Amino acid sequence: MEDQKHKSGDFSRIILAKEKQKLNALNEKKKSEWFGLGMFGMVGWSITVPTFLGTLGGIWLDKNYPQTFSWTITCLIVGLVTGCVIAWNWVIKENK
């Protein structure tokens, strides 16, 4: 009889642990959907803003300091690469 009570207690603890795990998973799913949308926006803006600023800087340099190459294209590429590095670092940081 004592052995059956012990098994019953273990079974109850297992069921309770599984129930908590399922409830946490449901909460995580709701959170992860909004988190995913937020991350999508953050990645987009962290690439867009440096690219746009680099392009504006390149246009200004082309007008004030003309060269044989295009400052606009050069600064656009530098801004794009910078934005990608920022986004990549942010995604890595958030996944930890």
TrEMBL record:
The chain crosses the membrane at residues 34-57, 69-91. Keywords: Membrane, Transmembrane, Transmembrane helix. This is ATP synthase subunit. The keyword Transmembrane applies. The keyword Transmembrane helix applies. It comes from Pedobacter changchengzhani.
